[in-house]
Design goal:
CATH topology: Aminopeptidase
CATH class: Alpha Beta
Shape: globular
Number of domains: 1
Distance between the termini: 30 Å
Strand content: 35-45%
Radius of gyration: 14 Å
Number of helices: 2
Largest sheet: 5 strands, mixed
Structural class: alpha+beta
Length: 109
């Protein structure tokens, strides 16, 4: 067995909201794997757990993640200043959200 990436959802039940995160090993990029996984997680959160808002953050320059979130219907809300910390420095991140009433509905086959 080989772990190629992760997707996670941290739920705040009191606010009926959640934060979603994801990562994928570089050699598996561009295959639609994260899109498929996140789409399933989002649907499950809205349909089973009665979540109203899901949010995600990305590095300012991560065009692949920005495009992925937009393709799932997430809207950019703005920049969170010095929110992230990695490589011994603070970093700004983009904040995206998807509200249940605004989510795109995809036809099922």
């Amino acid at each position: 067995m080989c772990l190629i990436g992760t997707c996670g959802l941290a739920i705040n039940g009191a606010f009926r909201s959640a934060s979603i995160g994801f990562e994928l090993e570089r050699r598996f990029w561009g295959q639609g794997l994260v899109h498929e996984a996140l789409s399933s997680i989002v649907d499950h959160a809205y349909d089973r757990w009665d979540i109203n808002r899901i949010q995600a953050t990305t590095d300012l320059d991560n065009q692949a993640s920005i495009g992925l979130l937009r393709s799932l219907g997430f809207i950019e809300e703005g920049i969170m200043r010095q929110w992230g910390y990695w490589k011994d420095a603070f970093h700004d991140v983009r904040l995206f959200s998807l509200i249940k009433a605004e989510r795109p509905i995809y036809p099922t086959a």
